[in-house]
Amino acid sequence: MSEGARTASPYQLRDLFVTFLNNCFVASPKELWEHSWKSMSEDILHKRQRILGHANLELDANTLEQYTLIEVEKLMRMQDRSLKRF
Hints:
Number of strands: 0
Distance between the termini: 18 Å
Shape: globular
Number of domains: 1
Radius of gyration: 13 Å
Order of helices and strands: HHHHH
Largest sheet: none
C-alpha cells in the first residue's frame, strides 16, 4: 500500500485496499488499515466540503477515518462483501 500511496489517487488506494481484503491473505487487516487509512482519506475532506456546500468545513481525525471507512464499505458492497467480516 505504501508504494501505491506515492502514485495512486486516494480512491485507487481504497480500491486496492478492498482488493487486498477480498483476494489476498492479509494477516492483520487492522494493522494494514492503521498504516494506510490516512493516504486513503486525502480526498474525503474536499468531498465532504463539496457535498455539504461548506468550503471551510474541517474534520477531526476520527471523523475523517469514519468517512473513509464508509467509502471503503461502499466499495466492499459493490462486490457483495462487507468490512464486518474483518
